[in-house]
Design brief:
Layout: E1 2-6, H1 13-22, E2 26-31, H2 37-43, E3 46-49, H3 55-65, E4 69-72, H4 79-82, H5 90-93, H6 95-115, E5 119-125, H7 153-168, E6 172-176, H8 186-193
Parallel strand pairs: 1-2, 1-4, 2-3, 4-5, 5-6
Length: 195
């Protein structure tokens, strides 16, 4: 398959791209910096500089790649984009990521529709509780708790929207958990060490 990975130089993209290549897929992966094109080449992908918030740039990149599948991994969680991790103020720290999860998702879906891409897979998140109604065990059908009135609300609302619009076009959303380790939110590693 021809796979378009939006966000190929992020923590997850850097791990996903070589696995796709190893399975024989032709991968086009995006980055926001020309300085990272060599990294993508080293992972086996054709690299493209793209701003996920620029609808024209997204449309052109997808059209040029002619993918069979788009995988949405765009975030701006790295210190280069969002500064030092601020888990107490996720509304501030995730502001650009929330835009990538809303506007960026819309741009990718529009590009998929315009170029006839049949499959879209997007990054979701599963580490928040289902709504506090009913039993303790929740299923995919149970509504999510968007934590209205908290600093986390904007991000959870953006994630919920990703699920709605991507599933609405027949795509798939993978609900990830929290990631830590080299290149991820390194502050979490320090918290784990402190127990």
């Amino acid at each position: 398959m021809r796979v378009f990975v939006a966000g190929g130089t992020g923590v997850l993209g850097r791990r996903l791209v070589p696995r796709l290549v190893a399975r024989g897929h032709r991968v086009t992966a995006t980055t926001t910096s020309a300085a990272r094109l060599d990294l993508l080449a080293g992972l086996g992908a054709e690299g493209v500089v793209m701003d996920g918030l620029d609808a024209v740039a997204v449309g052109e990149a997808v059209a040029a790649a002619r993918p069979d599948t788009i995988v949405h991994q765009m975030t701006a969680i790295s210190p280069a984009h969002a500064g030092k991790p601020d888990l107490k103020h996720p509304d501030r720290w995730f502001a650009l990521t929330n835009r990538l999860r809303t506007e960026g998702t819309d741009h990718l879906l529009a590009a998929a529709e315009a170029t006839g891409v049949p499959h879209v897979v997007a990054q979701g998140y599963a580490s928040w509780n289902g709504i506090r109604e009913g039993g303790w065990v929740k299923t995919e059908e149970d509504p999510l708790d968007l934590l209205e009135g908290t600093a986390a609300h904007a991000g959870l609302k953006a994630l919920s929207r990703v699920e709605d619009v991507v599933l609405g076009v027949g795509g798939a959303v993978l609900r990830y958990g929290a990631f830590y380790g080299p290149g991820a939110v390194d502050d979490q590693v320090e918290l784990v060490r402190k127990r």
